[in-house]
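FAQ: What does a ligand-bound record look like?

Like this one, built around zinc ion:
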Amino acid sequence: MTSFSTSFSIIKPDDLHVHLRDGALLEIVAKHTARQFSRAIIMPNLVPPVTNTQLAGEYKARIEKAAGQGFEPLMTLYLTDNTEMQEIQKAAENGFVKGAKLYPAGATTNSDSGVTDISKIYHVLEEMQKQGLPLLIHGEVTNADIDIFDREKVFIEAILAPLTAKFPDLKIVFEHITTKDAAEFVAASGQNIAATITAHHLLFNRNHMLAGGIRPHYYCLPILKRNIHREALQKAALGDSGKFFAGTDSAPHILAKKESSCGCAGCYTAAYALELYAQVFDKAEDLSKPASQAKFENFMSKFGADFYGLPYNNEQITLHKISQKIAEKISTPEGDIIPLLAGEEIDWSVVYAA
Ligand code: DOR
Ligand code: ZN
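The answer part, i.e. the structure of the complex:
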């Protein structure tokens, strides 16, 4: 007797937060993202950062070349203390820049040129509000005396809540949220405030990273939190508010930089992103049900497009409930990238055209 496993198709999704890097790494990781996603919001934390429309346009061309046809990079600008209002106007005129990223200086990888004090960019935020250009926020305070597990919560109280009061119509994406506090803040805010959620923050809590040994490939920023937070993120991702959507924060680093006495932050998920998100939705809501498949499609392919005012993609992509083993490593000319869950089995596989 043949048994049929679940297989279903959704609109080819958008990754509303990804790091593609540059040079040799870009050549490899862009193809992973483009296999699973039609479009992606490209984070600008290169060295040096993508601080203006000219640089964003040049980076866009390199991404298109590396990704191949059919993939649209949605570019972002990196805000600094010195960003000028004219740059925002230029970005809005050109159209291919879809947002500007706020990294509090020192918050994460390549954030040294970030904003040191939010009040320094009020004039820029004013212009973004006027132009309808979304502000994409890495929401963590950077004070050394604030516990790393509290940095997102404190950011909401100290920076984000006052910011939304000062700029009530500014479109904001609270990126890669990791706490119940962030999920509740976004849910309670107006329709101009949304959030991305990564697959790893939906799948794991801090025990996965720290209990029984330190697992550096689970180390990312914002850091994995307690399980109650993961549960709140799952509830948000499965909800129908339209305010929560997929953003992998896939962030490739080579092995030597991750497995080190001072390992850097980032989980590489781009090559298996859809399967990882499917794993979450299936465990919570059983993806053999059409209603659950529709929720998955909303989160992966519709809510983000709606927020950014983009049409839905024309292509479809098919997932099959057939297990596969995640690659042990992905070789690049700069060294190996170890994907999250390297060497482990996952339940789902994307069906790629031969
Ligand atoms: O874990 C992270 N890695 N979080 C970030 O905010 C940046 C990213 C990176 O660029 O490696
Ligand atoms: Zn990121």
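Follow-up question: can I read anything off the structure? Yes, for example: The first helix runs from residue 23 to 36.
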